[in-house]
Amino acid sequence: MSKKAKFGIGLVVGAIAGVVAGLLTAPKSGKETRDDLKRKKDEVQDKATAKAEEVKGKATDKAEELKGKARDAADEAKTRATDLKDRATRAAESAKETWEAEDGRDERKANKK
Fold it and tell me: Rounded to whole angstroms, how far apart are CA atoms 42 and 36?
């Protein structure tokens, strides 16, 4: 877990603890205190849900971005591999032609003797 995430979690836990402590020490009736606690719980829950959705959206966007980059890298690798294969094939064909030409000269020289 990153330092920012740990700090964020600590901040939320600290805020909740502060709110609870403030409500419990406030001079209110039990019903008022329970209502305040429920309201604060709902607020924190809503904020946490919104933040989770935001993080989920960002993670999805990043995943799509990385998929695209991976796809592009794979396409580039495939293109380079095909190019390398074609160059190797041409080099082998050229070497074969050169070898056959040299071999033919050697045979003609041997036949002249």
Answer: 10
